[in-house]
Amino acid sequence: MQKWKTVQTEYVYKTPFGNLRKDTCELPNGIVINDYYVNEYVEWVNAIVITKEKELVLVEQYRHAANEFFVEIPAGKIEENESYEEGILREVQEETGFTSLEMPILLGEFMVNPATQTNKIRTYLIQEAFHAFEQDLDDTEEVTVKLVNFENMENLIRENKITTQLFTASAYYMAKAYLKR
């Protein structure tokens, strides 16, 4: 197996949220794809946050592309000159007001959608969390914090009792497997 060759690249647009790139690609068998679109996004972090009382700290917010409210784990992009661990602790604090004195544990690093996107997500586990701050949201954010018993989350996911996204479900199951060790 061989990698594709990028013959030409041009940007359709660039924004602070991400760029759309159009590549012309030549496959190893000689076929040329003229319009292969690639979304360039920054990397981001998310975390399963568990309180001292074994509650999962979740956020509910509106997601415009899906035209629906979703219950998710805290997440966001890292800022310039910030480690991934510092970034997730900051995001958790800003979105929820929760923090922890324990360092985040890396559960995994994954490509989001390597067919069309360039970014990775790093998923962390934060334990012994406690509420210490007020939310510090951007003007475009409206986030409601929800606390759910960690063990009950599996039923909520399996029985579709919450609207969530794949990253929340996969992070939950990774954390559960990690904690069983």
Mean pLDDT: 95
- Estimated helix fraction: 10-25%
* Tally of individual domains: 2
Low-pLDDT runs of 5+ residues are: none
CATH topology of the largest domain: Nucleoside Triphosphate Pyrophosphohydrolase
Approximate shape: elongated
Q: Which value, in Å, is the CA radius of gyration? A: 19 Å
Structural class: alpha+beta
The count of β-strands is 11
Query: Helix tally?
Result: 3
CATH class of the largest domain: Alpha Beta
> What is the rounded distance between the termini?
37 Å
CATH architecture of the largest domain: Alpha-Beta Complex
What's the helix-strand series? EEEEEEEHEEEEHH
Beta-strand residue percentage: 35-45%
CATH homologous superfamily grouping of the largest domain: Nucleoside Triphosphate Pyrophosphohydrolase
| Major beta sheet summary | 5 strands, mixed
Structure write-up:
The chain is of the alpha+beta class and 181 residues long. The chain has 2 domains: 5-40; 44-180, Nucleoside Triphosphate Pyrophosphohydrolase (Alpha-Beta Complex). It is built from 3 helices and 11 strands; from the N terminus they run βββββββαββββαα. Strands 4, 7, 8, 9 and 10 form a 5-stranded mixed beta sheet that branches. A 3-stranded antiparallel beta sheet has the order 1-2-3, with no helix packed on it. Strands 6-5-11 form a 3-stranded antiparallel beta sheet, with no helix packed on it. Strand 9 and strand 10 form a beta hairpin. It is elongated, with a radius of gyration of 19 Å.
